[in-house]
Amino acid sequence: MGRPLPGVALDVVDGELVLDPATVPTFFVGYLGEPPPTGPWHTGDRVRSDEDGFLHFEGRADDVIISAGYRIGPFEVESALVAHPAVAEAAVVAAPDDERGSVVRAVVVLRDGHQPGDALARELQDHVKHETAPYKYPRIVEFADALPRTASGKIRRAALRDG
Hints:
- 20% of the residues are buried.
- The strands form 3 sheets. A 4-stranded antiparallel beta sheet has the order 1-2-3-4. Strands 7-8-9 form a 3-stranded mixed beta sheet.
- A hairpin with a 2-residue loop joins strand 1 (10-13) and strand 2.
- It has helices spanning 74-82, 118-131, 157-162, and strands spanning 10-13, 16-19, 41-49, 55-60, 65-67, 70-72, 87-97, 101-110, 140-143.
- It folds into 2 domains: 10-61, no CATH class; 64-162, 2-Layer Sandwich (GMP Synthetase, Chain A, domain 3).
- The two termini are 31 Å apart.
- With 163 residues, it is an alpha+beta fold.
- It contains 3 helices and 9 strands; from the N terminus they run ββββββαββαβα.
């Protein structure tokens, strides 16, 4: 994401980006029929800040997966998956698990010339373990021809969680 613009007051509170709307000249006026926002604005974006003050997007707060007490942002797992040469697209959501609460479930669209199967699923799991922390790997890997999308092209995670 980069560094905050000069004069923009923001903070990372419990991993969420929070800003002061009064310091953002282009901040929206408000929602129709509701009073304008005042005080800190909780964006719902999960971020981390590094030692140089750069902010790194980790996912939406409502998309974060809690597995065995670990907080796992889907964006990092998806990035690791699409770094594999067989993967064209990937989406990651939580799947219920009796032991861990939730586990990481990946839905993967393959590039031409690659075939789904158990061996490739294990290869993708190992790839994610190598690219990220080992606990972030998808315990469930499913293959699809396409990911469900909204009219604006965003992945419909709710459809993946429900299906």
